[in-house]
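2 proteins. here.
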Amino acid sequence: MVTIKDVARVAGVSTATVSRVIHNGGQVGDACRARVKKVIQELKYSPNTNAQALVSKTNNTIGVVTPKLSMSFFGTLASGVEHTAREKGYKLLMANSLYETQSELDAINSLRNHNCQAIILHSEYSDEDTLVQLAKDIPGLVVVNRYIPAIANRCVWLDNQSGAKRATEYLLAHGHREFAVVTSIYQNRDPDIRLQTIKQTLEQHDLKLDKQAVAESTANIEGGEQAVKELLASGSKFTALMAYNDLMAIGAIHALFAAGLRVPEDVSVFGFDDLPVARACRPRLTTMRYPIEEMSAYAADLAIKLSDPKQTPSSQTHLFIPELVERDSVRDISRD
């Protein structure tokens, strides 16, 4: 690898002069500057930006850690961060945690080894104490999709309660009284919050969600299919099915069709997230829009600001509200 010392030796100047030429600074004569630039081009020298960052204690790199970037939701999250990174002139580094605590910490440490001061973290399994300590160690750490009171000003999260309540009330307004839920086995807080809110909302209308009307599986299409097969095998009767996310909802639709049930004629299906696939499936999916791309873009901007020592940290909190998106997968049976 060509170094700055190689350029200085071939050009017959000091490394300080080469550095001044690279950064367009200092007193360097035109002839000397031209000679150094020519040598840089001939040797194909590229400045080590990581080393420069270590010297200056600054870096224009922003990092993203998610469980699995190949999943639509997390790919959309990364897209939002990238939008802000490009806008702010930052480079983007990404890493998977693979749903493992140690892998998550390893990914964060890898970004820190690149002197990355701004990091967007979607943390599934790290405990709150660990995240609070990381926030103390990393100036620009921002946690997405999780609320931790001790570092509330670094959290960008969604109001899952209002989203689940709105979805349940929408189905109730459409005449549904028999509900089933397919939810995620993943041990983050979202599935539990949404499920408990659905139960509470139904109870407010003198209805009860039976235990056998809830099935857990992986939060993907296959998981949605498997969960509905379990519901049907248990003999559970329902006219409305609520899914943890759009992928599970689509899997549920597949399983219902395979069992000879039509959507929405026999069973209405409600998703969550509003991924692009929700508009592409048939019937088009009614869902709650999770503005993850906007949230992650906002989180990236917040992380950049927090990583700047000149900025005064704010105590502001950052809560986003999901929106109802009405399409074709829910039928109004109140008029039957």
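next one coming up
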Amino acid sequence: MIDLHHHLLPGLDDGSKTMENSVAMAKLAAADGITHVVCTPHANGKYVYDPAVNEALVVEFRDLLAADNVPLTLGLGCDFHLSYDNIQDAKDNPARYTINNLSYLLVEIPDYGLPRGLTEIFYELQLAGMTPILTHPERNPTLQSDMSRLEEWLRGGVLIQVTGDSVRGSMGKAAEKMAHQLLTDRWVHFLATDAHNVTSRPPRLSEAHRIVSKKYGADYADMLCTTNPRAVFEGKPMPQQEEPRNLYDEREEKGFFSRMFSKLTEK
């Protein structure tokens, strides 16, 4: 399995605090069946985000894992927050933020509420060559109360990552309910751990994979945990997906992405 969202690097944010703790997290991940991890420190106003520092840590960490015979392949990205400065810089320097400096971008929305103009922001990031991956929408109370907000983003090409622990039910009942509705409708493209430590938020994915396999099919589980994240890790186009449900119904009013597409095709 390939974990696209993991706060593994030490001392950068609210994830791992020490290299020793990072090694312990890596060992737990490998024991759980995870073969690849994208290290995704926060890129926001609270923590310093420096790709050069992050890359140096990854190089050091790879050597430690190799010396300890931990079979884990590391990549690098970030947990991208939608501040004005971040958005402007990402449009000018996409590879500074994307996973493995390629084309996919993890985008995290606030714990509560939604930024204004989010649909337009996604569109601008796409115009700059990035494919946004919206992280754990099932944990946002605003979206929990109105899942329809996701429809236009999905129709416009935004991808969805759900936290494995939400599927298991350890992120709360509301997150669990929404996660399973998203899975039922095939609106989910990735499962990831969003691991921060070895205790309250450890790197575990196999149980969520098992649940999805049992309830929604083994092929879908493998796609969410291996096939799709591998495409992201390697910067390749997404493979053929299962047909989403309740997404492409005819609407009386066109959304933002539909209007923009119509304008483009009229030219």
